[in-house]
Amino acid sequence: MILTLKAHASQNEIKQVVNKIKELGFTAHISKGEIKTIIGVIGEKAITTRGIFESIPAVETITPISKPYKLCSREFKKENSTVKISDKVTVGSKKIVVIAGPCSVESRERTIDVAQKVKKYGACCLRGGAFKPRTSPYAFQGLGEEGLKYLREAKIATGLPVVTEIMSPETLELVSEYADVLQIGARNMQNYDLLKEVGSINKPVLLKRGLSATVEELLMSAEYIMSKGNYNVILCERGIRTYETATRFTLDLNAVPVIKHHSHLPVIVDPSHGVGVRRYIPAMALAAVAAGADGLIIEVHSKPEEALCDGAQSLLPEQFSQLMKTIKKVAEAVGRTA
Ligand code: PEP
Ligand code: MN
Question: What is the pTM of this model?
């Protein structure tokens, strides 16, 4: 439930409310506005203690949150949230954030080469996996720490912040040393230990929707991260399993307006995995921007035929360059920039 305190409540009054919340075994999430302070009382059956808070004079109104997810819901926060990745890059602002790069980090030279190209054509973050969640245990699993080092070199060469996947709670310290954004892959969307771990630090998290997860399940996973104190969550629609086989997955662009309706968190779209076929990716990237996405994450490779992972869905740098030009036009048409 949400407690709205009366205008200009004093520090002492806020403290009194927070202490009561803690005493009852719940957590308090404070959002301080210029005039009013809003406090989320988070915990199972928090609403049953409504009467206790009604008797505190500093509390003006009490609003229940009807959704199972609380902190990420629009009911908790009406305004859109933004997530700052670097001094230059904020997801959820007017500018569409385009993250681009290879599926996996394969070598030092190729990573730097692709990074320089996507930067030249307008990407504002570099993507690349050093720890890869592969369906087959015999497929390339990523270069691990060596790959993280190449990403760092590419960052130094281009100035692009790095988005890279974390697969296990044990690697939090290692991966966060190199990553500007921690990506939680589709296959780990419901790895609750991992979610809690990335919730314990303040780094931005890119949370991808599971292959067969509903929007509500995605939001529940975001809630895991936020409930641990990390509010820097970016949601990502990356395609879901359907009966259709013409594409690798079915990009569920419905999810963009649906998530925007129910949550204040920024949403980006991954047309590369969502479609899985190079030739269809530009159309869906543009559609995502038109649907209201705050950004895109796109796989780009300078020699896709040699890629160790996802070559068939990687755009050539020149195709990415062309796409960026059109993204700018679509962005403008919907009141954004790119
Ligand atoms: C990726 O981004 O390369 C990836 C593995 O994505 P997903 O988790 O969405 O399959
Ligand atoms: Mn990939």
Answer: 0.96
